[in-house]
Amino acid sequence: MTSNEFTRRDMLTVAAAGTGALAGGSFPMTPAAAAPAKEGPESMPTLMDLSLSVNGKEHRLSLDPRTTLLDALREHLHLTGTKKGCDHGQCGACTVHVDGRRVNSCLKLAVMAEGAEVTTIEGLGDPDRLHPMQQAFVEHDGYQCGYCTSGQIMSAVAMMKEPWGSDDADIREAMSGNICRCGAYQNILAAIRQVRHG
Amino acid sequence: MELFTYARAASPADAIKAAAAASTAQQGAEVRFVAGGTTLLDLMKLDVERPSRVIDINHLPLAHIERMPGGGLRIGALVRNADLANHADVKQGYPVLSQALLSGASGQLRNMATTGGNLLQRTRCVYFRDTDTPCNKRRPGSGCSAIDGFNRTMAVLGTSEQCIASNPSDMNVALTALEAAVVIRGIGGERQVPIGDFFLLPGDTPDRETVMMPGDLITHVILPPPQDGARSHYLKLRDRASYEFALASAAVVLATDKGAIRHARVALGGVATRPWRSPEAERVLLGKPATPATFAAAAAAALRDAKPQSQNGFKVELAKRCLINALTTVAA
């Protein structure tokens, strides 16, 4: 933890004790609070206490509301299997499951995931018990550098439950939100085809 | 990203009250609703959007698709794009809408993006997204960098001296051809806005894109009953086969009677500053035989007023061929 974070937390503790108004969870909103965002070093975020359920485990976190689900997973829960590529929803490296559906974790605030079940690549399988999709990616060499792989696998697993046709063209279309900079698409396709068709 | 405070709206009234404190619901809004977050978070990371207050509306009861008495569908603003596209009633009665939705974004983004959010989707103009360059839409009066810059993807219809940014949505093009209505609740109560009146032309105020006012919350989209015997289709043309915005797209609804066209709705995407209904094309089609000559005449009428820029002249011909192809498909 950096000294900067200590300072922030100290300040917030003081602020919360003073006003009794620490934001967190669902609460009635006060009207006319459209004050412009302050700029400069004196401007500090009010941390939000929240609970995230990730891979079946509850985590209590105190986060700047700007924290994306992606950053919460990587920087605060140290689940670094989920990757940050473009950070704008264009590459798919950050794909995780929220309540079983694939989403770009870079375009979701962590606080918006409260109350949902988040699954990351770490929750899918482990080296001793690989998920069939992980196993298929290994068997078909569905990667080169590996940076996009966890997103590819999370996307592929979720796609199996979506209403897609059975052709290769359907798989390609369904997976178009996951970019592979190395171009391992042929092998990714083969891995997914194997799991889909058994 | 600028600092903001986050709160969850417990009810539509709660959300409306909070958003009514903003000075505008257009570019520069101090309060923003967040639903899917796929546009808002993207633009907040770029500092194009800088709300000081973000109201999470995901817990409002607006995620249902209901059949209307007498036909038609009422779609909740929080229905995700993937769920709308794959809904049996939409696939059956409004294939153009299902096709348009599935042609947009990616599987992940369609799981997040909502019906209401898609209506408010922002342009992909590179200058709008880059705060280092002038842009009348982002900073009124600063100038348009696109007119003398990279304008290959920009609009050729509905442009002004101030702005040539194209509307990127696929869904809204289909909704335009389907003559949908947008249900908005605001501080003055509820109103229904025909989709043709919802989007504004850029004119001298490109920062104003819709009729949304402070406090306005889109609650539903209403689809009228499907036209008897009509077929519909969405065709999207782009630089790559998937996961790309349209260079040109066409949404068409067509019904014929003994070979003559008795109902025609035509909307274009990717080529205009807003989802572009073409009454000119519809007039040409009505009462005529569904032939290649009729379709070519309709396409010519739709693009007659096109104003290409230095790099996007190809869009005029591309949009014509796109429309002809879509009409040929539904008439087959």
Compile the SSE list and pairings.
The complex is a heterodimer of chains A (198) and B (332).
Chain A: H1 3-19, E1 48-54, E2 57-63, H2 69-76, E3 95-98, E4 101-104, E5 117-119, H3 121-124, H4 132-139, H5 149-159, H6 168-174, H7 185-197
Chain B: E1 5-8, H1 12-19, E2 31-34, H2 40-45, E3 53-56, E4 65-67, E5 73-76, H3 81-85, H4 88-93, H5 95-103, H6 107-112, H7 115-119, H8 171-177, E6 181-186, E7 189-194, H9 195-198, E8 217-223, E9 231-237, E10 248-257, E11 260-269, E12 276-277, H10 279-285, H11 292-302, H12 314-331
Parallel strand pairs in B: 1-3, 2-3
Antiparallel strand pairs in B: 4-5, 5-8, 6-7, 6-8, 9-10, 10-11, 11-12
Helix pairs in contact in B: 5-8, 10-11, 11-12
Structural key phrases:
heterodimer; A: 198 residues; alpha+beta; DNA polymerase, domain 1; five-stranded mixed beta sheet; 7 helices; elongated; B: 332 residues; Uridine Diphospho-n-acetylenolpyruvylglucosamine Reductase, domain 2; Enolase-like, domain 1; five-stranded antiparallel beta sheet; 12 helices; globular
What does the model show?
The complex is a heterodimer of chains A (198) and B (332). With 198 residues, chain A is of the alpha+beta class. Chain A has a domain at 132-197: [2Fe-2S]-binding domain (DNA polymerase, domain 1, Orthogonal Bundle). Chain A contains seven helices and five strands. In chain A, β1 and β2 form a beta hairpin. Chain A starts with a helix and ends with a helix. Mean pLDDT of chain A is 85; it is low at 1-28 and 30-41. Chain B has 332 residues and is α+β, with helices and mostly antiparallel strands. Among the domains of chain B are: 5-56, Uridine Diphospho-n-acetylenolpyruvylglucosamine Reductase, domain 2, CATH 3.30.43; 231-331, Enolase-like, domain 1. Chain B has helices at 12-19, 40-45, 81-85, 88-93, 95-103, 107-112, 115-119, 171-177, 195-198, 279-285, 292-302, 314-331, and strands spanning 5-8, 31-34, 53-56, 65-67, 73-76, 181-186, 189-194, 217-223, 231-237, 248-257, 260-269, 276-277. In chain B, α5 runs antiparallel to α8 and α11 (292-302) packs antiparallel against α12. The mean pLDDT of chain B is 98. Chains A and B meet through β4, α5 and α6 of A and β1, α1, α2, β3 and α6 of B.
